[in-house]
């Protein structure tokens, strides 16, 4: 059973009556322990594809299965449950909440799930410490360096131990050293065989880490 | 279900954005203080106007005008009347009238009157019924009869009153009207009060004797009743007047009067009191309205206008809170999109926004209530309203509670408005379009 199965997926935007096709006939499968790197130029539809896979966006056609459950048919609440429990997202610009501390940003994923405050704080603190941010738990994002912010974003993704990580340019806004740090944090989890990851990048992610590489070009996904 | 996490997040959100929170809370405080001061001053001005207009004329008199010339009755009916039997034609004409068989002996010169008009008779019981109306403060039966002096042939009006009644004081004769002599003494057996003009015309002074229907009365005092509703030349006890009148009519009175003097509960209920009395009186009864209507017009008493203004201020409060809540959510669209992207459900976000609205409106309203109360105590309200009254009831706790409940309620309700935006917002679009802060 594939962890993710994408079947003839398409996405079209309608703006002022004019249809714009982003991509169509996108199909692939992903197993746990795999890292699929999707490349393509800016505007090729990589982020849109990740948005659909995470349930944040709706497809215009085709289906997506996650652990044999059809994502494209799930209601909003169940999609939210999936993101809170089994699918983690890493955004290009981190998307940390600016008025919340590093610890609170990580804890946010665990809130409203019946987990006690003490437990949440302990899990966030442990993970942030593992990522070298033990001294920065109570710092606001604006008080952290770009690399530290990205590590907080990674911690927020990993804190609920997702089986699928969707990463949109995870190393896009950081220097090569920080990029290496981030990949070194994520890769062990993938190699352990418990997690799979799809990375969207226009060339800044180290392709040698990927199990497979695909390219979104002219609205088609082409496996390398 | 509201969880502890929602409250924690709401409190944290408010604490971590002190400027925004302070702006929203102060917005509520200013609005509530303004609403409170406006409402209190408007209501207070209404109370004061009611008092002022009440003094000017929330009293009146009612009576049944005479049913016409007795000569219009047939010989048979006249014969019945002489025997004390009320003819059918009279019964059907005037439901409350009891006086068809009590015609004056000197039909041309004497009779039951109010000022210059002849009247029918009513029961004293009806005056008591009117006195029990919720819109009426007091009602008093009055007998007014025009006598003719058999020697000098002049006519004069005698009013039989129930002293001590507020309605008598406001409509007919009050202790303040006394010019000379003893007011209370005028309402004792064998004594009477005389109108100052009548006294001058007939050379009467306190202590002098005056004959009415063959009985001698002592003048206890003279009064100037000025522009009161019910005017008479002589004022005396109701029972004394009743006894004298019985000497001049065909059949004796039995618990009857011809005028009912009335004072309304207050200026606000005066209009309704006039209507209520009219309903009880039935038939073709007449009412005086005193100076109420012109006074009300002059003072600009318009309850609807006051209510409309209050509604306008309340509407402004609602719009203001809606604006605040909307702005607050718009400012946080990206944060909300992030929370939804990491798995927060719509209802959790909505609950948090609602709790934030509740806490802010509650805190702002309480602060506004304190500021409003302080302003009401410090402002020279009487001077601003141009009135001279004792400041009572302006800090009405019920008004405070109502304004607080309204402000918090509208805060919560308008806090739900942005929910529409939250539900409709697609996080993927918000994250793409809105710049990271």
Give a verbal description of the structure.
The complex is a heterodimer of chains A (224) and B (437). Chain A is an alpha/beta fold. Chain A contains 6 helices and 10 strands. Chain A has helices at residues 46-54, 76-85, 102-107, 117-130, 146-158, 176-191; strands at 4-15, 18-30, 35-39, 61-66, 69-70, 87-90, 164-168, 196-200, 212-217, 220-223. The two termini of chain A are 23 Å apart. The mean pLDDT of chain A is 89. With 437 residues, chain B is of the alpha+beta class. Helix content of chain B is 53%, strand content 16%. Chain B contains 16 helices and 14 strands. Chain B has helices at residues 4-16, 18-57, 75-82, 88-93, 124-131, 166-171, 196-202, 238-246, 267-281, 292-299, 303-331, 333-341, 346-378, 381-385, 397-424, 427-433; strands spanning 59-63, 111-114, 117-118, 122-123, 136-148, 155-161, 178-181, 191-195, 209-212, 215-223, 234-237, 256-257, 259-264, 286-287. In chain B, strands 1, 2, 3, 5, 6, 7, 8, 9, 10, 11, 13 and 14 form a 12-stranded mixed sheet that branches. In chain B, strands 4-12 form a two-stranded antiparallel ribbon. Chain B starts with a helix and ends with a helix. The mean pLDDT of chain B is 82. Chain A binds chain B through residues 47, 51, 54, 56-57, 76-77, 80-85, 89, 91, 93-100, 104, 108-109, 111-112, 117, 156, 160, and chain B through 3-6, 8-9, 12-13, 16-17, 335, 338-346, 348, 426-428, 431-432, 436-437.
């Amino acid at each position: 059973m594939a962890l993710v199965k994408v079947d003839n997926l398409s996405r079209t935007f309608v703006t002022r009556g004019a249809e714009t096709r982003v991509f169509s006939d996108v199909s692939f499968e992903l197993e746990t322990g795999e890292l699929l790197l999707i490349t393509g130029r800016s505007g090729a539809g990589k982020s849109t594809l990740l948005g659909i896979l995470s349930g944040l966006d709706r497809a215009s056609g085709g289906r997506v299965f996650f652990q044999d459950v059809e994502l494209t048919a799930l209601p909003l609440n169940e999609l939210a449950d999936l993101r809170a429990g089994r699918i983690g997202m890493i955004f290009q610009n981190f998307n940390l909440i600016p008025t919340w501390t590093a610890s609170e940003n990580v804890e946010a994923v665990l809130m409203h799930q019946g987990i006690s405050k003490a437990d949440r704080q302990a899990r966030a603190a442990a993970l942030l410490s593992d990522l070298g941010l033990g001294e920065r738990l109570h710092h606001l994002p604006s008080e952290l360096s770009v690399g530290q912010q990205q590590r907080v974003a990674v911690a927020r993704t990993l804190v609920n131990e997702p089986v699928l990580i969707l990463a949109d340019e995870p190393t896009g806004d950081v220097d090569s050293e920080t990029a290496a740090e981030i990949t070194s944090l994520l890769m062990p989890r993938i190699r352990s065989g418990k997690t799979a990851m799809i990375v969207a990048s226009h060339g800044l992610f180290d392709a040698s880490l990927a199990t497979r590489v695909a390219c979104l070009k002219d609205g088609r996904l082409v496996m390398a | 279900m509201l969880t502890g996490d929602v409250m924690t997040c709401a409190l944290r959100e408010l604490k971590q954005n002190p400027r925004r929170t302070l702006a929203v809370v102060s917005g509520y405080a200013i609005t509530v203080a303004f609403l409170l001061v406006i409402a209190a001053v408007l209501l207070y001005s209404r109370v004061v106007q009611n008092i002022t207009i009440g003094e000017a004329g929330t009293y009146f008199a009612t009576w049944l005008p005479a049913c016409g010339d007795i000569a219009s009755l047939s010989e048979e009916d006249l014969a019945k009347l002489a025997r004390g039997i009320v003819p059918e034609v009279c019964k059907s004409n005037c439901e409350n009238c009891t006086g068809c068989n009590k015609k004056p002996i000197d039909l041309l010169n004497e009779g039951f009157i109010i000022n210059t008009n002849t009247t029918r008779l009513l029961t004293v019981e009806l005056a008591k019924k009117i006195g029990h109306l919720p819109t009426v403060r007091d009602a008093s039966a009055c007998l007014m009869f025009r006598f003719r002096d058999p020697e000098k042939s002049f006519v004069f009006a005698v009013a039989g009153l129930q002293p001590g009644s507020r309605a008598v004081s406001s409509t007919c004769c009050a202790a303040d009207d006394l010019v000379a002599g003893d007011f209370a003494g005028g309402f004792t057996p064998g004594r009477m009060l005389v109108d100052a003009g009548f006294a001058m015309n007939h050379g009467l002074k306190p202590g002098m004797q005056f004959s009415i229907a063959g009985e001698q009365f002592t003048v206890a005092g003279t009064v100037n009743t000025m522009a009161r509703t019910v005017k008479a030349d002589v004022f005396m006890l109701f029972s004394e007047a009743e006894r004298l009148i019985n000497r001049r009519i065909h059949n004796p009175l039995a618990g009857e009067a011809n005028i009912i003097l009335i004072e309304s509960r207050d200026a606000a209920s005066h209009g309704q009191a006039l209507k209520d009395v009219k309903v009880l009186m039935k038939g073709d009864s007449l009412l005086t309205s005193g100076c109420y209507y012109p006074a009300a017009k002059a003072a600009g008493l318009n309850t609807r206008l006051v209510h409309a203004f209050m509604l306008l201020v309340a509407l402004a409060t609602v719009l203001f809170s809606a604006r605040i809540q909307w702005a607050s959510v718009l400012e946080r669209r990206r944060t909300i999109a992030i929370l939804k992207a990491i798995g927060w459900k719509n209802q959790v976000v909505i609950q948090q926004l609602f709790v934030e609205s509740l806490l802010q409106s509650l805190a702002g309203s309480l602060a506004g209530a304190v500021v409003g109360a302080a302003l009401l105590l410090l402002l020279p309200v009487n001077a601003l309203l141009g009135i001279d009254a004792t400041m009572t009831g302006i800090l009405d706790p019920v008004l405070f509670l109502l304004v607080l409940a309204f402000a918090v309620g509208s805060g919560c309700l308008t806090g739900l408005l942005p929910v529409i935006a939250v539900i409709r917002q697609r996080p993927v679009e918000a994250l793409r379009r809105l710049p990271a802060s």
